């Protein structure tokens, strides 16, 4: 696991988590980091295993519910920072929200506030929606990247990775059946979605958390807009703007996107 940092000696740190097959160099990570640096934050931009430009050495990669590395990162940085925020995008948003609510780990007291953008909190319904024709190019690009990594994993662990299954993979659901589930100890893709989705844990979140899911996000099903849960949990703040797509909240004439402004304001307000 690699973490890219910007350490300027500030008293607060923002940990940023990217989406599926993204990295710390993804545009939305760089944009958010740029804004938060100017708001007085140090940055630790997370690269999920295998996403920093080199394949990781262990058999396990990452998935939508893989909170182990996030917890380890928080434990590491909480030694030096008493005020930490975490911001997750897409898959990283689901990882973050699950971590905050599932109760598996003791959340460090230094983690004061969190935000998730374009969070696919219902993984099963979301995977079905990504498989729809209008998302064909997105799904194809995800699969090209993921299957390339599976070939490298097969070279590392030929007895663990059944690369012959790659021929049957046409959708992300197929990929999760063939690779994500067996590598990470799930029975199948549906078992993985059932255990890794953050929707079931949102009501348990006790850390002030912002979720921004645009209504025109082509990846998100209706169940990824948890209005009732947000209304009943005072720690969960849900914003559902009409436009923004999937992590695409551009702002004409400004280097700072709308979602970045909202994130910065939310983090700073709750630290105060």
Q: Identify low-pLDDT runs.
A: none
Largest sheet: 7 strands, mixed
- Amino-to-carboxy terminus distance: 32 Å
Mean pLDDT: 96
Task: Please identify the structural class as seen in this structure.
Answer: alpha/beta
What is the count of β-strands?
7
Supply Rg.
18 Å
Order of helices and strands: EEHEHEHEHHHHEHEH
Strand order of the largest sheet: 1-3-2-4-5-6-7
The portion of residues forming beta strands comes to: 5-15%
The number of domains:
2
Regarding CATH, which class of the largest domain? Alpha Beta
Assigned CATH superfamily of the largest domain: Alpha/Beta hydrolase fold, catalytic domain
Identify the notable features of this structure and list them briefly:
seven-stranded mixed sheet; alpha/beta; Rossmann fold; 38% helix; 272 residues
Question: What is the element layout, followed by pairings?
Answer:
Layout: E1 2-6, E2 12-17, H1 27-38, E3 42-47, H2 68-77, E4 83-89, H3 91-101, E5 111-117, H4 123-130, H5 136-156, H6 172-184, H7 189-196, E6 209-212, H8 227-232, E7 236-239, H9 258-271
Helix pairs in contact: 1-9, 6-7
Kindly describe this structure.
With 272 residues, the chain is of the alpha/beta class. The chain has two domains: 2-122 and 198-271, Rossmann fold, CATH 3.40.50.1820; 123-196, no CATH class. Helices cover 38% and strands 14% of the residues. It contains nine helices and seven strands; from the N terminus they run ββαβαβαβααααβαβα. The chain has helices spanning 27-38, 68-77, 91-101, 123-130, 136-156, 172-184, 189-196, 227-232, 258-271; strands at residues 2-6, 12-17, 42-47, 83-89, 111-117, 209-212, 236-239. It has a seven-stranded mixed β-sheet with strand order 1-3-2-4-5-6-7, with helices on both faces. Helix 8 links the parallel strand 6 (209-212) and strand 7 (236-239). It is globular. It starts with a strand and ends with a helix. 44% of the residues are buried. The model has no long low-confidence stretch (mean pLDDT 96).
């Amino acid at each position: 696991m690699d973490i890219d940092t910007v350490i300027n000696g500030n008293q607060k740190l923002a940990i940023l988590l990217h989406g599926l097959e993204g990295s710390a160099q993804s545009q939305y990570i760089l944009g958010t980091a740029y804004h938060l640096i100017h708001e007085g934050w140090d940055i630790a931009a997370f690269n999920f295993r295998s996403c920093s430009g080199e394949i990781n050495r262990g058999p396990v990669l990452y998935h939508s519910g893989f909170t182990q590395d996030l917890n380890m990162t928080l434990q590491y940085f909480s030694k030096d920072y008493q005020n930490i925020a975490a911001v997750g995008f897409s898959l990283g948003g689901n990882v973050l929200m699950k971590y905050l609510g599932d109760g598996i780990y003791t959340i460090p007291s230094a983690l004061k506030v969190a935000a998730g953008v374009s969070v696919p909190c219902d993984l099963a319904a979301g995977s079905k929606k990504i498989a729809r024709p209008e998302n064909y190019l997105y799904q194809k690009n995800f699969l090209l990247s993921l299957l390339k990594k599976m070939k490298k994993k097969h070279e590392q662990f030929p007895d663990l990775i059944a690369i012959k299954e790659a021929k049957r993979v046409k959708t992300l659901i197929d990929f999760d059946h063939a690779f994500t589930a067996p590598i990470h100890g799930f029975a199948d893709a549906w078992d993985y979605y059932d255990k890794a989705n953050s929707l079931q844990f949102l009501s348990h979140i006790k850390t002030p958390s912002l979720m921004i899911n645009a209504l025109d996000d082509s990846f998100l099903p209706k169940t990824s807009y948890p209005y009732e849960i947000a209304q009943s949990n005072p720690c969960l703040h849900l914003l559902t703007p009409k436009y923004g797509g999937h992590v695409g909240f551009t702002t004409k004439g400004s280097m700072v996107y709308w979602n970045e402004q909202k994130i910065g304001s939310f983090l700073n307000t709750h630290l105060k």
